[in-house]
Design goal:
Helix content: 40-55%
Strand content: 15-25%
Shape: globular
CATH topology of the domain at 2-133 and 167-191: Rossmann fold
Distance between the termini: 41 Å
Structural class: alpha/beta
Number of strands: 12
Number of helices: 11
Largest sheet: 7 strands, parallel
Order of helices and strands: EHEEHEHEHEEHEEHEEHEHHHH
Amino acid sequence: MILVTGAAGKTGRAVLQALARRGQPARAWLRRAEQAEDRLSADTVVGDLEDARLWVEACRGIDAIYLICPNMYARELEVSRLAMRAAQEVGVKRIVYHSVLHPQTEEMPHHWQKLRVEEEIFRSGLPFTIVQPCAYMQNVLAYRDEIEATGRYTVPYDVEARFALVDLVDVAQAAARVLTESGHEGAVYELGGPANLSSLEIAQGLAERLGRPVEAVETPLEAWKRSARAGGMPSETVGWLAAMFGYYDSYGLIGNGNVLGWLLERAPTSLAQFMARTFTD
């Protein structure tokens, strides 16, 4: 039995689906009871990730934990400590931690926080595997309405900065393999996509798929922050994302897909393949 935290989020859902395709039973940790209506797993635990007693109950009968916190979660380090303490108490055999590409980049606070979690896992004495995925191709879909309405792909950083992008389906399949096979203990796996692309190249791919021009446009970071605050985004999240976009603007965030290809036993999904699957004519 595998415990998947953050099971109502897009990554948790994808991992549960990949485990189900392997016939692997899983326990889904949900924040709210109504999220169980999706029937992602017959076995669920409902409550706050910062509830120490619930962690112990959630880990009973579990062989491995797939630990993923909500995006930009300020207390991820504290949650990881609860997870490891409960795992040690009840005898969980292994923890698989969903980290991020290049967690050692101190200029991005949420990446740096994940590095602190990795260090805690190293010190815990628990058998572990760490996966470090890059940004998802699915993130492009957040701009879909604007792209289709205006022909503009707008980002708050240099449109020539280059990024590794990965299909979430590929990440979930790799995670399911790591969770259900032996031999991955002690590994840190960078899960990059097949190519490092600029926003200009992403826009070109969108144009080819949609059959119409799509222009990559940089919006000023200060304008993005004003819009995010006006939309109700918490100030801490705005700060973290702004720091990330500032880093992107200067350096991009490139990765490598070789390890993911090895885990999948095929080439990682390309952006063109993802768009063909996602965007309809």
